[in-house]
Amino acid sequence: MFDYQMHSRILVWMETAAEELRRSHQRDLKIEEKKNAADLVTEMDKATETFFVQKIREHYPEHQIIGEEGINDDPVTDVSGTVWVIDPIDGTLNFVKQKKNFGIMLAIFEDGLPKAGYIYDVMNHDLYYGIVGVGVFRNHQILEPFKIQAISEALIVGNIGMFATNRGNSLALLTQSLGARAYGAAALEIISVLKGEAAVYYSCGLQPWDFAAGWALCEALGFKATTPDNQTLNLLKRCPVVFGNPLVHAEALQLLKETKEIGEINENS
Ligand code: IPD
Ligand code: CA
Ligand code: CA
Ligand code: CA
């Protein structure tokens, strides 16, 4: 049975965190580089994750927490019991450079399996959540799965650098589709698949906090979320991921394993 008291708390926490992020645009923020100049962390990434970790510890001290910024100092080495996965700001570069096009992602797993996922498109005030066995909702309205029939009639979404360098054979997907779109935030790209604006989200390497909420939302909508070789995603490591409805997901997996001459790329791609 899904814990609706926990769900109600999460909704309140997401609203509070989103409001703080919107308000933070009014002041100068402390920004640090992680691996390079395009890999940033701001005081709001840390503050948002700290906020969630404190709330979870207060209400659910026995639960495990995985978060991008490592605020929880108790590393998760096995996925037994309830595991929370937090990406406090997905699209930090957009958050800094555009002050829009970023999200908050949170997911709940039970013994390694997704139970619920939350993605907040903060500047558009759109909160998506999915409860496995119940469905997916956008601002509390049920989201009907829109079944794209074939990649050739749709857009696909993913990271622009991946397509530009054909990482993970990604051009095989791009050339089959009408074109690729990249929003600089996995959160928003995954939402576009759930809404039927794009057929497939593909990444040849995502961290657990980047894919956990999307995985749970896909599961709740009856969509597939696996690695390109159809393996179950692993919450404890970086994985390549393919998200989409069962039809286009199967097509994407087939395309990704075919090494063939890359076809012509549509001029409007
Ligand atoms: C990044 C974004 C980006 C994706 C990267 C992620 P962050 O997350 O989702 O779209 O391509 O792989 O690391 O660092 O902004 O939370
Ligand atoms: Ca980051
Ligand atoms: Ca992320
Ligand atoms: Ca992040």
Automatic annotation (TrEMBL):
Per the UniProt entry, what is one GO biological process?
A: inositol metabolic process
Q: Which SUPFAM superfamilies match?
A: Carbohydrate phosphatase (SSF56655)
The entry's keywords: Hydrolase, Magnesium, Metal-binding
- From the UniProt annotation, give the residues forming the signal peptide: none
**PROSITE patterns tied to this protein:** IMP_1
User: Which cofactors are required for activity?
Assistant: Mg(2+)
Q: Which GO terms describe its molecular function?
A: inositol monophosphate 1-phosphatase activity; metal ion binding
**Which positions in this protein are listed as binding Mg(2+) 2?**
D90
Q: Which residues bind Mg(2+) 1?
A: E68, D87, I89, D210
- Supply the PANTHER family for this chain: INOSITOL MONOPHOSPHATASE, INOSITOL-1-MONOPHOSPHATASE-RELATED
This chain belongs to the protein called Inositol monophosphatase family protein
Q: Which organism is it from?
A: Fundicoccus ignavus
